[in-house]
């Protein structure tokens, strides 16, 4: 009887997690691999005679040391964060009014324009980097982090505008109209009614813009040369892949430390994802 | 009114997050602004900016940077070297050529002089000065740096990366080859036995540099080639190429595992480092890395010449040269720097731990720095004699480069080796591809 009760309790408490476990394995395994490789000695890493999923030899901090002392990793991290924050600000400042206009205002060509905007997101950066490099050069930003600050919105803006359009459309028009009846101008209604209601959307767009920027490689490679101006995704691969020699431990350490800011951003915004989108509007 | 109060309360509760994010963003922007906005000093001073690969030996880059610093002190010309991975250099050069701005000197990795010749200065004068001092350049250097249109050097040769054999002496001794395989046939015979013992050999058969280098080495050693000496006549459809293809298929099936079909440049290094590989075709970088991480295993690894074929011994040279860009604001300074670099070849070779192989005839004779002092590496003294590059026996034309970049030969062999095509289909398929590429450049 006790065994049956215990089994029931296990089923009740842990059963719901069962369907989740394959997903967790797929999502978490790369992080697990990253962590153990970051601290594994090279000889241990290449040893095929032992189980690759744990340490045979004692862990080492050599790879982290090489990353922090042998490269400009902290500078790259600082550059990536700064560029990410600035791009998010620029993206939101431009995408919010654009999304509102495309979603709410009736003007000729609004629909094709919004489709075209989204399609522009689908053009790969490998095709755009050469024409964009002429723009960057024209602005005098070659080999400066400002090059990335102005170029990255070219792919964050279309996506975020499209995303925010969806959020704006879900806000009942009546709320906005009520505000206008109460004396608000359209801009005031946008600022005081729409924006507070779509905060989860704004945060989602911000996070997408940040992560897209943070992981970008080809533009950073094209527009940046000096080591001190590199971003984390470019710097780590440029300094830790030498010819046919990959510094796996340090590469994984870089990826691990680099993932922390993104994790923090997500952690800060998690509750907004959980909140119902229109909950505030219906109150 | 109570609704308004609730909203206000909500806003009050959100203010800390907003304040946090706003403050963080503001602080980042404010702290970063002066740092990134100030233009670098090179804008105002005489400078030579160099785009170079990240050398596989970190100590070489340190030597290179300090050499540049010393030269800078002597000449008053500031030198900035930007190191990036070799695979990313072509994209970088493409962007700089499109904008007609960027580095004064660009390193051409594997190929490039012909391809970028319109954007590179004729540097024959500097090449002549260097050649005069050191007995002239080797034919390989001519092949890599001369542009067919005017017969002039449009880049200054720096060094080439060789492809010798790296073998496990303990294992090859067991199968009767204590000095490693000297011919491709030896490699096949010994490799079969070693694979059976669980120690396969490894040559990549995928889209990466080493694959297109190693399989060309075999084809040339069998007397085959993609193109004739004139650089125009396609010679792939030949008895020699067929023989090479048949041998390659046997080598793949008998001595390797299918994992080579998914390899990258680092994979054969990993095979050797794992202790499971018995032979790889690779520069000494694989050996040097193991030396640093597993001394016991490194002691068992020896270096031999790239194997000989039934016709001759040929191997592939992955070349490095420097072009001076037409948009350089300091072309004379750039040439002077490259001349000084050529003067310091022996120091450079030493810093590279014997990796950088010479292009200048006087440097291509023993004693070599590092190589001649280490009995294990001594076979590399002969490398300059039998290493050739893309397009051999013809010049490295843009067409030859495109065949190389499109992995035509690797794809042909992969399809044949994995039984997707028979021999005649393979030859026909590759010949058509090569002809179509060459036709574009007529």
Please state the structural category of chain B: alpha/beta
Approximately how much beta-strand content do the residues of chain A carry? under 5%
Strand content of chain B: 5-15%
Q: Helix segment count of chain A? A: 16
Question: Which descriptors apply to this entry?
Answer:
heterodimer; A: 283 residues; mainly alpha; two-stranded antiparallel ribbon; 16 helices; 2 strands; disordered C terminus; B: 442 residues; alpha/beta; 5-stranded mixed β-sheet; 4-stranded mixed β-sheet; 18 helices; 13 strands; 48% helix; globular
Summarize this entry quickly:
The complex is a heterodimer of chains A (283) and B (442). Chain A is mainly α.
Word description of this protein:
The complex is a heterodimer of chains A (283) and B (442). Chain A has 283 residues and is mainly α. Chain A is built from 16 helices and 2 strands. Chain A has helices spanning 2-14, 21-39, 42-46, 62-70, 73-104, 110-121, 125-139, 145-151, 153-170, 173-181, 186-197, 199-215, 218-223, 232-240, 248-274, 279-282; strands at 241-242, 245-246. In chain A, helix 12 runs antiparallel to helix 15 (248-274). The longest helix of chain A is centred in the N-terminal third of the chain and has 32 residues, at 73-104. Chain A is flat and about 75 Å long. The N and C termini of chain A lie far apart (49 Å). By secondary structure, chain B is α/β, with parallel strands linked by helices. A 5-stranded mixed β-sheet of chain B has the order 2-1-3-12-6, with helices on both faces. A 4-stranded mixed β-sheet of chain B has the order 8-9-7-10. In chain B, helix 2 (58-75) packs antiparallel against helix 14 (345-351). Chain B is globular and about 60 Å long. Chain B starts with a helix and ends with a helix. Residues 6-15 and 28-44 of chain B have low confidence and may be disordered. At the A-B interface, helix 3, helix 5, helix 7, helix 13 and helix 14 of A face helix 1, strand 1, strand 2, helix 3 and helix 10 of B.
């Amino acid at each position: 009887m006790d065994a049956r009760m215990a089994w029931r309790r296990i089923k009740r408490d842990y059963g719901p997690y069962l369907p989740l476990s394959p997903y967790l394995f797929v999502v978490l395994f790369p992080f697990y691999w990253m962590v153990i490789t970051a601290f594994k000695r090279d000889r241990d890493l290449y040893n095929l005679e032992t189980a690759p999923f744990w340490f045979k030899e004692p862990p080492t901090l050599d790879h982290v040391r090489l990353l922090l002392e042998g490269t400009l990793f902290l500078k790259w991290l600082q550059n990536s964060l700064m560029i990410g924050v600035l791009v998010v600000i620029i993206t939101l400042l431009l995408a919010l009014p654009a999304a509102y206009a495309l979603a709410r205002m009736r003007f000729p060509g609004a629909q094709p324009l919004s489709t075209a905007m989204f399609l522009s997101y689908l053009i790969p950066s490998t095709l755009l980097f050469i024409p964009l490099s002429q723009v960057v050069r024209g602005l005098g930003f070659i080999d400066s982090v400002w090059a990335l600050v102005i170029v990255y919105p070219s792919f964050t803006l279309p996506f975020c505008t499209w995303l925010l359009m969806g959020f704006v459309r879900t806000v009942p028009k009546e709320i906005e109209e009520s505000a206008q009846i109460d004396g608000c101008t359209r801009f005031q209604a946008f600022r005081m009614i729409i924006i507070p209601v779509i905060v989860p959307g704004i945060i989602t767009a911000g996070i997408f813009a940040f992560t897209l920027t943070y992981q970008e490689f080809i533009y950073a490679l094209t527009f940046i040369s000096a080591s001190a101006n590199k971003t984390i995704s470019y710097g780590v691969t440029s300094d830790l892949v030498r010819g046919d020699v990959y510094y796996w431990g340090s590469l994984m350490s870089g990826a691990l430390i680099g993932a922390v800011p993104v994790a923090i951003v997500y952690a800060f915004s998690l509750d907004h994802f959980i909140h119902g989108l229109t909950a505030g509007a219906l109150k | 009114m109570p609704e308004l109060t609730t909203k206000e309360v909500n806003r009050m509760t959100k203010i800390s997050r907003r304040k946090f994010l706003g403050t963080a963003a503001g602080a980042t922007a404010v702290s970063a602004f002066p740092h990134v906005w100030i233009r670098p000093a090179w804008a105002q001073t005489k400078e030579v900016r160099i785009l170079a690969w990240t050398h596989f030996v970190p100590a070489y880059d340190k030597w290179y940077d300090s050499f540049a610093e010393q030269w800078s002190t002597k000449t008053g010309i500031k030198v900035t070297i930007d190191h990036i991975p070799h695979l990313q250099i072509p994209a970088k050069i493409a962007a700089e050529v499109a904008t007609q701005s960027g580095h004064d000197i660009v390193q051409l990795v594997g190929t490039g002089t012909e391809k970028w010749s319109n954007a590179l200065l004729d540097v024959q004068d500097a090449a002549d000065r260097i050649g005069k001092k050191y007995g002239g350049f080797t034919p390989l250097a001519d092949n890599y740096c001369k542009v067919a249109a005017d017969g002039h050097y449009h880049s200054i040769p720096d060094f080439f990366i060789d492809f010798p054999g790296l073998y496990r002496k303990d294992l090859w001794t067991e199968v009767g080859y204590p000095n490693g395989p000297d011919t491709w046939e030896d490699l096949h015979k010994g490799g079969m036995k070693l694979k059976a013992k669980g120690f396969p050999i490894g040559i990549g058969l995928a889209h990466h540099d080493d694959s297109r280098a190693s399989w060309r080495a075999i084809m040339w050693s069998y007397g085959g080639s993609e193109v004739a000496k004139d650089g125009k006549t396609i010679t792939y459809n030949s008895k020699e190429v067929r023989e090479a293809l048949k041998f390659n298929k046997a080598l793949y099936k008998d001595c390797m595992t299918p994992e080579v079909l998914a390899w990258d440049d680092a994979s054969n290094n990993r095979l050797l480092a794992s202790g499971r590989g018995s032979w790889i075709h690779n520069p000494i970088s694989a050996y040097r890395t193991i030396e640093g991480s597993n001394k016991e295993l490194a002691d068992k690894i020896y270096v031999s010449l790239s194997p000989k074929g039934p016709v001759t011994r040929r191997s592939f040279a992955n070349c490095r040269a420097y072009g001076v860009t037409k948009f350089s604001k300091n072309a004379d300074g750039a040439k002077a720097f490259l001349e000084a670099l050529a003067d310091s070849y022996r120091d450079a070779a030493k810093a590279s731990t014997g990796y950088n192989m010479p292009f200048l005839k006087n440097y291509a004779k023993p004693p070599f720095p590092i190589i001649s002092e280490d009995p294990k590496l001594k076979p590399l003294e002969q490398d300059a004699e039998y290493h050739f590059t893309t397009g051999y026996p013809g010049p490295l034309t843009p067409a030859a480069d495109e065949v190389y970049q499109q992995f035509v030969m690797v794809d042909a062999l992969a399809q044949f080796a994995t039984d997707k095509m028979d021999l005649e289909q393979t030859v026909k398929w590759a010949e058509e591809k090569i002809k179509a590429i060459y036709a574009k450049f007529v």
